[in-house]
Amino acid sequence: MKNILVTGGAGYIGSHTSIELLEGGYNVICVDNFSNSSKDIFDVIHDLTGKHVTWYEADVCDVEALRKIVKAHDIDCVIHFAGYKAVGESVEKPLMYYQNNIDSTLALCEVCLENSINNIVFSSSATVYGAPQYLPLDEHHSLSATNPYGNCKLFIEHILKDVHVAHPEMNIALLRYFNPVGAHPSHRLGESPKGIPNNLMPYICQTASGLREQLSIFGDDYDTVDGTGVRDYIHVVDLAKGHAAAIKKLATAPGCVVYNLGTGNGTSVLELVRTFITENNVDVPFAIAPRRAGDIAECWADPASAKEELGWEAQYTIVDMVRDSWEAQKRMNTNEKVTVASEAV
Ligand code: NAD
Ligand code: UDP
């Protein structure tokens, strides 16, 4: 494996994974339509690694565009990050989600099959487990989804499993991420959601920055350690390393494989907020609010399969995660001010 096509490589997880791949000696060819990212990221990646990502501005749903990109490179493996990811927006605009997330996967599979690209890594999510029947969640847990975003992940898993059945030479890794947070240790790239963040960590960061007045903690009456929701937060650099490990696994032609990428530890909302405040020495005003519709009480991974079969294990702690998220946010705040200032002139 040498040449890796990364769809959505300019995004949050894709950019961190591209760095990991370049540092691992792979060539990275990225296709992104920049619907939720910026081309500037490639300069940052070059600064950090001294290596170039070869990138194309194109829609992954565009089969012709994909064909041209694939023909220009001898692609060994595809990592498919591209897609829309906001749960709330998916409820409001289901067709937009099904169209983008499913069509892009179908287009990618078609072009892979035409060109004998036999290795695909897919960004799935712990959302495919629905409400946990038991904890920790292992890969054998039953699957269900409660919103269009989750349905897309579930459908795409089915599509890729079916592709493997019809084309057994196709090796596929379905990676089920738990809650990605944090940023590259340089703090030059991180998570920068457009509009009001849905997810907890970006909301905490924006509240600490003064961009949001206060954080609402959605529910303190769950049957959990302190009544607030519990999740398995995983540092994005650990997640990126998980993709590099998955590529190595695919090189052994394992067929269709599924791995949880989580730490195995649950952290409550209050624990995360308090750690953020203490470690970063910054205030985060918060108030308890009603439960958010559709939320589960708690969820964390059994990451044993990834450890045994990929030799991968998360290394970063919650303290690392809150520090790197905050440091990257502070840098983003500065850059945003610079941009606004120049626009005003
Ligand atoms: P992101 O929005 O930062 O990155 C996605 C990238 O895909 C963006 O650069 C966007 O411009 C691009 N894109 C979207 N549709 C495209 C299309 N049709 N053609 C070309 N490019 C397109 O998201 P992320 O957080 O990096 O997530 C990456 C993947 O991981 C997504 O599939 C997401 O559903 C999945 N995932 C994310 C999380 C999370 O919490 N961040 C959790 C589980 C799974
Ligand atoms: N959460 C919260 N306030 C927010 C955003 C999230 O209290 O503004 C809680 C949410 O109820 C859940 C946890 O934080 O218990 C993680 O939520 P997130 O949306 O980040 O991830 P997901 O629900 O997809 O696991």
Structure description:
This protein has 345 residues and is α/β, with parallel strands linked by helices. It folds into 2 domains: 3-181 and 233-261, Rossmann fold (3-Layer(aba) Sandwich); 200-231 and 264-333, UDP-galactose 4-epimerase, domain 1, CATH 3.90.25.10. It is 42% helix and 17% strand. The chain contains 11 helices and 13 strands. A 7-stranded parallel β-sheet has the order 3-2-1-4-5-6-11, sandwiched between helices. It has a two-stranded parallel ribbon with strand order 7-10. Helix 1 (12-23) packs across helix 8 (236-250), helix 3 (63-71) packs parallel to helix 5 (94-114) and helix 7 crosses helix 11 (318-344). It is globular, with a radius of gyration of 20 Å. It starts with a strand and ends with a helix. The relative contact order is 0.13. Uridine-5'-diphosphate (UDP) binds next to helix 7 and strand 8.
Please indicate the count of domains. Answer: 2
Distance from N terminus to C terminus (CA atoms, Å) equals: 49 Å
**Largest sheet report:** 7 strands, parallel
Count of DSSP H/I helices:
11
CATH topology of the largest domain: Rossmann fold
Assembly of the depicted chains? single chain
Biggest sheet strand order reads 3-2-1-4-5-6-11
Indicate the radius of gyration in whole angstroms.
20 Å
Strand content bin: 15-25%
Q: Write the H/E string, N to C.
A: EHEHEHEHHEHEEHEEEHEEHEHH
CATH first level of the largest domain: Alpha Beta
**What would you call the structural class?**
alpha/beta
Per CATH, the architecture of the largest domain is 3-Layer(aba) Sandwich
Mean pLDDT metric: 95
Ligands, ions, cofactors: nicotinamide-adenine-dinucleotide, uridine-5'-diphosphate
Shape: globular
Number of strands: 13
* CATH homologous superfamily heading of the largest domain: NAD(P)-binding Rossmann-like Domain
> Percent helix among the residues?
40-55%
